[in-house]
C-alpha cells in the first residue's frame, strides 16, 4: 500500500461488490488508463488491492459532511451556495462522461462538502460504461429512486443524460429542502418520474429545473456543465429580472394536443424489475463532521446579452461547450457597427397565446425581415417560466408563438405549440446576433414563402 502525506481512509470491499472496485478505480485510481480527464472534485483513490483475501480501497479522507447531512441540519441552501455546489459536481460528472462512464447514483448522500464547501462526488461503485445495458453486474436495480431518470426504468441503457437528470433533482432539493417528488411507495415514485411534470419553485430556477428534468433525455441539457451554467445564469439574472420587471410566473397551460408518447410497455417492464430488485452495496467511505458557513433551441443555453438600441453591437457571455458550433465566415464578418432599419414586431392584444408575462406576446409581420431565435420552449407545463427566464436573460428580446406567426417557422413539435424568444432585424443585424450569442441560436427569414428550417446566416 502506498504511503501518503494526507490522511487516508481504507474501505474493505465485500465480495458482492468486488466489481465496484474495478469501476471505482477506473474513475479515480492512480494506475487508471481509462479515466483520461481527472477532476479535482472526484475523491482520489491512492491504492487498491487485496490483503489476506480481502479487497480494499485506499482513498482520501474527506474532513467535512455530506450534502444530505447539511440539508437535514440546515434546511434549504441559499441559492448561491446551491449553485456553487452543483457547478463543482457537474465538473466531476463531465469528466467522467468524457471517459465514457456514467455515475448512475448522483444524490446528496454521495456529495461530500469539505472546508469552504469544496465538493467531492463519491461512490462510483455503481458507475458503468455508457451503453452498458446492465442494471448492475449482479442484475440488481441500482441507484436511489428519488433521483432516477425515467429512462432508467426502461430497457435501454442509461447515458450521461441520466446523471444530468439526477443532478437537477439534487439542485431542486438544495433550493427547496425536499426531493422533487414525494411518494409513499416506490411504485408511486417511479410513476412520478415517468408521468408527473417537473415541480416548480416559482422563481427564476423553474426553467432550469424543467429542462434538466425533461422526460425525454434529448430535451435535457447536453451536459452537466450546461445545467450548471444555466443555473448560474438564472441566479445572476435575478437582479436583472427585477430591474426589467420580468419575473418567472406560472400561467395556465396552453390547451394543446398532448405530445405523442412511446409505448409504455418497455418502461412498465423495466419499472417492475426495478421495484422487485434489491439495491446492493456501494463504495464505503467515511468522514468527520464539520459545519461550514457558507437555458433549433430547446437545447439553447441561457446567455446574458446586451443589445444596444442604436447599433447592432452585441455583447454576450456564452456557455463554453465542446459541441458549440462556430460562426461561419459570413457571420464572423457581419457588420456590427451599422445602424439598421428594422420592422418592429406587432404587439398582439392580450388573448390566445399570451402567457400573461409583463412582456406581451408579439406577431411579427411576415414581410421578409429576419429574426435571430435564442430560445424555444416546447413543454406546455413550463411555457411561462421558461419564456420569462429567457426574456430576463436577453433584455430587449420579444417572444412569439410560431403557429400564430410566419409559415417559414416550424409550427409545432410533437403536436405542441412552440414559443420562441427572438430579436428582429435586418440580415446583418440578425447574423451578428447569431454569431455573438452562438450556441444553438438560429436565424430565419420571416415570410410565408421560405421553406421551414432554412438558415439565413
Question: Which descriptors would you attach to this protein?
Answer:
17% strand, 3-stranded antiparallel sheet, 4-stranded antiparallel sheet, 457 residues, elongated, Transferase(Phosphotransferase), domain 1, alpha+beta, disordered N terminus
Mind sketching the topology for me?
Elements: E1 8-13, H1 18-28, E2 45-51, E3 54-60, E4 62-63, E5 65-66, H2 67-74, H3 79-98, E6 101-102, E7 111-113, E8 119-121, E9 128-129, H4 160-176, H5 186-195, H6 206-212, H7 224-244, H8 265-276, E10 287-288, E11 304-307, E12 314-317, H9 329-332, E13 346-347, E14 362-363, E15 369-377, H10 383-393, E16 398-401, E17 412-413, E18 416-417, E19 419-425, H11 427-437, E20 442-446
Parallel strand pairs: 4-10
Antiparallel strand pairs: 1-3, 2-3, 5-7, 6-9, 7-8, 11-12, 13-14, 15-19, 15-20, 16-19, 17-18
Helix pairs in contact: 3-4, 3-7, 6-10
Structure description:
The protein has 457 residues and is α+β, with helices and mostly antiparallel strands. It folds into two domains: 63-238 and 270-288, Orthogonal Bundle (Transferase(Phosphotransferase), domain 1), CATH 1.10.510.10; 304-446, no CATH class. It is 29% helix and 17% strand. It is built from eleven helices and 20 strands. The protein has helices at residues 18-28, 67-74, 79-98, 160-176, 186-195, 206-212, 224-244, 265-276, 329-332, 383-393, 427-437; strands at residues 8-13, 45-51, 54-60, 62-63, 65-66, 101-102, 111-113, 119-121, 128-129, 287-288, 304-307, 314-317, 346-347, 362-363, 369-377, 398-401, 412-413, 416-417, 419-425, 442-446. The strands form eight sheets. Strands 16-19-15-20 form a four-stranded antiparallel β-sheet. Strands 1-3-2 form a three-stranded antiparallel β-sheet, with helices on one face. The protein has a three-stranded antiparallel β-sheet with strand order 5-7-8. A hairpin with a 2-residue loop joins strand 2 and strand 3. Helix 3 (79-98) packs antiparallel against helix 4 (160-176), helix 3 packs antiparallel against helix 7 (224-244) and helix 6 packs across helix 10 (383-393). Residues 1-5, 20-37, 129-143, 239-269 and 271-343 have low confidence and may be disordered.
